[in-house]
């Protein structure tokens, strides 16, 4: 049986189940580090992911969410890239 992966939309970390993902706090939560839980990325697993704000492509959600986005709605480089579905 193939293992399905679940990813956090905020930080890109991979989890083996939705239960584990939603039970842990996230270091890149919008309210601040560890001030909220991981959010399930509801898109499919892909070869590359596109930022919904600027269109830049990344090989993983983890790499995408680790850098700031010039077109972020909060202002230039005031938030991280976010994966488009």
Low-pLDDT sequence parts:
none
Helical percentage:
10-25%
Strand portion, in percent? 5-15%
- Helical segment count: 2
Order of helices and strands: EEHEEH
C-alpha geometry = flat
Tell me the Rg in angstroms.
13 Å
| Mean pLDDT score | 92
Going by helix content, strand content and strand pairing, the class is: little secondary structure
Distance from N terminus to C terminus (CA atoms, Å) equals: 26 Å
Tell me the major beta sheet: 2 strands, antiparallel
What's the number of extended β-strand segments?
Answer: 4
What is this structure's SSE topology?
Elements: E1 6-7, E2 14-15, H1 18-23, E3 49-50, E4 57-58, H2 61-65
Antiparallel strand pairs: 1-2, 3-4
Short description:
By secondary structure, this protein is largely without helices or strands.
Q: Could you characterize what this model shows?
A:
With 85 residues, this protein is low in regular secondary structure. Helix content is 13%, strand content 9%. The chain has two helices and four strands; from the N terminus they run ββαββα. The strands form two sheets. Strands 1-2 form a two-stranded antiparallel sheet. A two-stranded antiparallel ribbon has the order 3-4. β3 (49-50) and β4 (57-58) form a beta hairpin. It is flat and about 35 Å long.
């Amino acid at each position: 049986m193939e293992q399905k992966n679940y990813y956090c939309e905020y930080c890109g970390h991979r989890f083996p189940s939705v239960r584990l993902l939603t039970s842990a706090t996230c270091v890149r939560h919008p309210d601040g580090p560890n001030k909220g839980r991981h959010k399930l990325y509801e898109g499919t697993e892909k070869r590359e992911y596109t930022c919904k704000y600027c269109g830049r492509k990344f090989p993983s959600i983890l790499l995408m969410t680790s850098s700031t986005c010039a077109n972020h709605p909060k202002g230039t480089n005031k938030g991280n890239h976010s994966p488009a579905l």
